[in-house]
Amino acid sequence: MDSQQRDNPTLPGQTQEIEVIDLKDEKLRLVQNAVDHLAPKSNHLIEGQVEDLEKSAFQFERLKQAEISCCLLAFLGFGCGAITYDLEYVHSIYEERKQTVAAVTIAGTASTFLLLLAIWWRTKQELRWMQAKGFYSYQDDLLSTQKMKWLLLEIAINLPHPIHWLDRAQFSYYNGVKDATVLYTYNSWLSVFTVTRLYHVIRVISVLSLYRSGRAQRVCRMNGVYPGSWFAVKCLLKEKPYHGLAVMLLAGMLVGAYLLRVFERPMVPYTNMDYGVYANAMWNVLVTMTTVGYGDYYPVTLLGRISGIAVCFWGVLCVSMIIITVTTLLNLDSSEEKALLILDRLSFKKDLRICAANVLTSALHFRTLLKKGAPTIAIELQRGKFNRFISEFQSARNKQRALYGNDSHNDIVEKGVNDVEENVLGMRKQLDRIEALLERALGGPGGQ
């Protein structure tokens, strides 16, 4: 037994190391078994993320329908709110058309609730489309994708609207600028909230454009770009800047004028600025957006001034885009620049011939006067003409260098002549060397 211990000595520390290694091997085997057990499920999950082209195309068409429905219902609600405001503002008109006001208000409420349902439908269709695209798994829902909070935010934005049981219900508002108390209807302020629904127009334009199509989605995904509504809007402004500017200006004028009309109209008896006429409100918005500001119309209420500030920023944005668009319009592309350069060169050749002809004609005339012994005054006058024509010809040569660079005919000929001269000088040097070598070779034996 002692001999066996001497042949296989095992220390206590080594025994502990062997036990630790055995435990590690056992843990690795357990982990490997777990991975092998879960491998089919993980493969199934990975396969579930692959885009289903047919299903994604179908869901995207459904998303288009949902966006169009939201936009139409949003416009209907905004129109009902604006009509309700106009019919309720004047008491005599309201008394004559109570039934019309009630019908319009109820229609606005019905369109609002239908809009909320359409927004929920649109959010669900967007989720299903993104699941088919592979952005989300089919186990995800509105809560796990955090779309629920955006859905609730949209519902809060689109919910306010004129209500039937608030017809002609008013509240007082004190204006410190004019030291006056005026009355507003609740429905007039609720109609202002319907203006925020116009963002549905941007969504519809983007989803119907080329930049949200299935091909655009795949191309953008390959390049690491998310092709959302903002991407489509930027592409549309890049491709069609004139249409975009026209829409921005028109939308800014109409929306800004509506807001000013609602907030400033009750102050007309105290300001003598008739905001009841929509054209006057549009005029105020136009001169504000273009930073002119004649001062004949201006807001005096707090919300009217806030609306004016928003119109100012919108106008600065539109004016800056107009400047950029006009600058881009005046810039020539590569083909146009090439055509312009050719036309300038052709025109310059004609001018250069005239300058050269003037120089030669004046020199010949000057020489003729010298031979004939003309009076000194005539000779000096002709000398001045000759110097002036020489100066014009030198200016034309400088312009030629700027216009042609190193491609002008004179520069090409001059360069060719210089190359010939250098070649001739090089040949002469070689001939001189050959002659010297021959003289040495022939003179060497004779000298010996």
What is the secondary structure topology, with strand pairs?
Blueprint lengths: L1 H6 L4 H37 L4 H37 L1 H6 L1 H36 L13 H12 L11 E6 L4 E6 H8 L5 H10 L5 H9 L6 H11 L1 H24 L3 H4 L6 H12 L12 H29 L3 H39 L3 H29 L4 H39 L1
Antiparallel strand pairs: 1-2
Helix pairs in contact: 3-5, 3-7, 3-8, 5-6, 8-10, 10-11, 11-13, 11-14, 13-14, 15-16
Structural summary, described in words:
The structure is a single chain. By secondary structure, the protein is mainly α. It folds into four domains: 51-208, no CATH class; 209-239, no CATH class; 252-331, Orthogonal Bundle (Helix Hairpins), CATH 1.10.287.70; 334-417. It is 78% helix and 3% strand. It contains 17 helices and two strands. The protein has helices spanning 2-7, 12-48, 53-89, 91-96, 98-133, 147-158, 186-193, 199-208, 214-222, 229-239, 241-264, 268-271, 278-289, 302-330, 334-372, 376-404, 409-447; strands at residues 170-175, 180-185. It has a two-stranded antiparallel ribbon. A hairpin with a 4-residue loop joins strand 1 and strand 2. Helix 3 packs antiparallel against helix 5 (98-133) and helix 5 (98-133) packs antiparallel against helix 6 (147-158). The radius of gyration is 43 Å and the shape is elongated. Residues 1-12 and 38-48 have low confidence and may be disordered.
Keywords:
mainly alpha, Helix Hairpins, 4 domains, 448 residues, disordered N terminus, 3% strand, two-stranded antiparallel sheet
Brief summary:
By secondary structure, the chain is mainly alpha-helical.
- Largest beta-sheet details: 2 strands, antiparallel
Structural class: mainly alpha
Number of DSSP E strands: 2
Helix content: over 70%
- What percentage of the residues does DSSP assign to strands (E)? under 5%
The topology string of helices and strands comes to HHHHHHEEHHHHHHHHHHH
